[in-house]
Structures are given as C-alpha cells and as structure tokens.
C-alpha cells in the first residue's frame, strides 16, 4: 500500500477490507509501520513524567517519534492555554485542566478506544478509590475528568465516555524532613510552623499548591475549619495567609522554592530541615547519601494527578498515533517505570508485569523489601528490610485529605499570595 | 535617476534603523501599553478599555512596598558599584603606567563574564549557606560561634550578587572617560599646588561625570528590571517589581503584568530623566 495522505479517516480504511475484522477485535488503531516512522508527536509537561527514557521506548515499541519538552508547572499552564499549535500532547495536571479546558485547545477523548479503560483506578472515574472511600476535598480528578461529548465545554459530573485527560500518574504528597537534624518523630502538619524550626522551614512558591499546604497546616493547628480547602472563601484565604505572613515575619522560613532542584538543594545542604516536597526530590536527596524522609502525617496527604490531553488540532494519522501512544502508556511499561520511582500508575495491574515481585511488594503493597530497591536509573533507594513511607497503595491513596485545586477565588488568592511573598 | 534631494536621501538613510526600531521597540511597547488596559479572566484575556489593572496596582500596599524595595536595591547597588567601579577604574587609568599591563588588568576584570549570569549567581549559594565555605571559615578562625544566617537568603545576599554581577558595567564607562582625560590637566593641577584629593575632586571627578552617568544608567536599569537574582538570592523571600511581573505572567495575568511593566518603565524613565538633568551626555561625549 502506498503511503496514505495524512488526515485519512481510520474508519474509512477499516470499512474497505478484511483488516476491519482484526482491527475491531483490538480497539487500538493499527497503523502501517512505514508511515508511523515519519510521525512526530510533540509532548510537553513537567519534568516529573517527561522523560527521555519514555520517548526512546516509544520509538522502539511504536515506531514514531515523541519529542519531549519538560517545563515548570506555571509554564505548562501557559503553554497549554496560549500556544495550542505548539504541541500535540499535553501532559498536564488535573487541577490545571480547570484553567486550560475552557480555552478550547484540547479535544475530548473517546474512552471506547482506550483498551485498559475499565482497569483505570476508581479515583479518576468516580472519585472513589474503593466503593466505601470518601471523596477528598479540592479539584478531585474525576470532577474535571469528563465532558458531555467530543465538543463538550462543560465538565460532566459522571462518566460520559469522553475524557478530558487520560490519567497517567499521581501521588500523595506530604512534608519532607531531615530526621538526622530533627531527631524526634514528626506526626502533624503543624510542625511546619513550629518555632523549633524557625529559619529552617520552607514551602513552595507555587500559589495553588502552596495554599493547600498552608491550609493543611492551619487546619491541623485548629486555627481554621475550612468548608473545602480546595475552594476557599475570601475570608478563609485572608486568615490562612495572615497566619503564614506572621510566621514569615517571625523568620520561620529559610527560603521558598519553585523548582525541583531548589527543593533538593535546600534539603541536602541543611538550609531547611522541614519543607513541602515532592517524592522524587526526596529520592534525589537520599541518593546523595543524606537521610531524608517523606513523612506521613496524621491529617493525611495532599494529592495530585496528571494525565495526557490531546491538542484540538490533532487529527488523522497523528490522532491515531496519539491513541496508540495512550494505549501503550497504560499497558504497563511506563507504569512500572513511574511506580519504581514512587509514583502510581493509573492502571497499576498492568505495571505489575514490568516490576519484580520485590518491587511490587515494596512500592504497591507496602511490604518489606526483600532485596535492594533501585530506581529505574539504577540508584539505590532502599535496602532489604525497609518499608515504603506511608505503607501500601490503599493506605496512602486512602488517606488523601485534598487534591491540588483551582479555586473560584483563584485570582484573589494569587494576589494575596503575592502579598505574602512581598511581606 | 539620480537622487539629488538631500532630504530624501537623508530619510532613506535613516529608514532601515527607523523601521527596525519601530518594529522591535516601539510596537512591542505600544502593545504592552494597550494590553495593560485589557481585562483578564483565569484563562483568557479580553480586549477592553478599563482601568482595573492600574486601579488595583495603585491601591495595593504591596505595590508600594515592592517599588520601595526595587528602588532600595537600585540605590544601594548603585552606591556600591560606583565606589568599587570608580576605584578600580582610577587605579587602572592613573596608577598603571604601562599600557600592556593596563589592558591585561582590564581583561582580568572581565573574567567573571566568561560564564553565564545565572551560574555566577548560583555559585554564591553554597558559598554563603549555613554550612557553606564562608561560615565554616569564619567558625574555624574563631570569629563566630554559630553560622551567620543572614549571609544567604537576605537583602545582603541579593545586593552582594547584584554588585558582583554589575560592577563591570560601572568600570568600563568610567575607565573609558578617565582615559580621555588630558594628562596635562593633572600636571597643571599639581603645579598649582593641588593635593591628590583636590585633583580628584576638582579635575578628575567632573571630567569623569559622563562615564559615571552611563554606568549609572546601566546599573540602575539592570537592577530595576532583574527578577531572577532577587528570586534566587533571597530564596523567593523578597520581591521586586520584576518578580511581580514574572509572577503575573506565570499565572496568565498578562494585562496585570503589562500594567506593572508600564509603571516600571515610567519609573525607570523618570529616574533616567532626573539623572540626565545633572549631565548632558551628548555634549560631554
């Protein structure tokens, strides 16, 4: 067969021949290898999941080229909202969806084309991890996960078969600490503002996430009872910022961080001993031989989830390739790669096949490691006998207190945040 | 056809530069001014003519505090870079007799510029940190008992980085003007019985004024627009106007960022206008 024009309809092709039978039995679109090798998909997202290893594996397994651009969270939002033609695949977080979806730069995805759709964990479909679990506060992924139809602009409240983002990666965040410099157990979010750590604490300077950490602290202190930490009233915002501004003026914080490496350096150099942190940053500190713990706290976790969105302008062969990519993404290799760094995959079952029994036990089931646990790049993360912080998948994801969010009063919050930074 | 009209020829000669300036300087600034009157929602900006952005800017105490901080950084950095820059240039121009040595030493001044701004700045962080080289050295000398916390993530570290980054912008123009000073003027001053200080004050300083002024404009505009130094060296704990703008851009608040940028631009222009009242650069050059 000669090379088809870009933009041909897969359905038209299927109707023409016997390939239809084979292809419809397997819902992923089948592409001709000699054509796919010319396809280039441009993906951008945060450094968390935009890894060259993934791009290489895509080339090996699927044949087409994936160009990765890793940006910081703010730039990701900017790019998705303002430069629709600069990408084919947006690897973004669910809370950003609330800002980006109304711009119309993304297209909804047909879940019937997703082979492993039924095996995606409940958090992303109904909001519930298990049928009994309570839905956490904030922008829970399922609330921005669906739209009415292919051209829907409003978020749907239930599974409609049209997804905004296909979930790929998520985790439960908490505070990172230096146990060697603290020397006592840390159990609550309140410790972030404990005067004992004056000049040695830090939070992140990304307002929509930072305010959630603040809220966890203020609630734990008993100072504020929030209706919904992920959607505060102006009064709640004022009171939250006021508490932290006072702490800032009393010299509680050493610095604020905005990028991954800043948080690693602050912790590794001993400038701070307690701070909001991301799990791979803990790994990075540990791999320098410095003791660092991702401390589970009794009030629970602040969680986030990321997914893959498709550009509105994607069509034809490229669109089919993108669906191929999504199906491949959920089929286990990437899941295993991510889970061996401490994140969770949207379809944990498939990742299991790409992990050793020891790794699966340690990362997912919260069991003691039976052997050394290494990262995908070969760094030692844990020795035999160690257990993962926070326990098993269900313990960790079951203790999520809130999701990263965009509030109705977001603009007001941002202005107050600027005041906090300038105070 | 021969171009005989002098005016037409003049216009033609000026046209390329005019077009470049219009396209890459005037048009973007005009755009920023226009956008600063627009409105914004969470995810879009819409054309309108409203004063909301300015209203918020001028009614917020943050604005005044941040502009205050910006001017403070500019002034302190200016004072320090001027005294260091002037001293260095003076030494190079009047104490080094051999021109070869002069050029060699001048090149030495530029060595820090062989690496990027960001690297020069970030390398201060491990040096000044709580367990950094500076603190460890001071402790081992017995000067202090506990690490000095204010060395890093403070106004001190911000200004230190600014001075480090921008002193050369003072040295170069001052050195340049000093080299043009007619040496016979210095001899005349000495012959008339002026002391070294009197010569410096009444001969060298007035003649160096254009260089100082050019250096000042460099340093002040650079410091007032720099946001990355403030962010890194203060550990995000301080803010200047540049950071306000970069925060706004990060949060897609382009109109608000544009309004702040317009106010900053006006402030810088006013500062330069005041500076130019003291020296007529065109005449002096």
UniProtKB/TrEMBL annotation, chain A:
InterPro entries: SBP, TAT_signal. Coiled coil: none annotated. Residues 1-33 form the signal peptide. Gene3D superfamilies: Periplasmic binding protein-like II. The keyword Signal applies. Pfam families: SBP_bac_8 (PF13416). SUPFAM superfamilies: Periplasmic binding protein-like II. Keywords: Signal. This is ABC transporter substrate-binding protein. It comes from Celeribacter indicus.
UniProtKB/TrEMBL annotation, chain B:
It is found in: Cell membrane. It is a multi-pass membrane protein. InterPro entries: MetI-like, MetI-like_sf. The keyword rRNA-binding does not apply. The chain crosses the membrane at residues 12-38, 73-92, 104-125, 156-175, 211-234, 254-279. Keywords: Cell membrane, Membrane, Transmembrane, Transmembrane helix, Transport. GO terms for biological process: transmembrane transport. Residues 67-275 form the ABC transmembrane type-1 domain. GO terms for cellular component: plasma membrane. It comes from the Bacteria. Its main location: membrane. The keyword Membrane applies. This is Binding-protein-dependent transport systems inner membrane component.
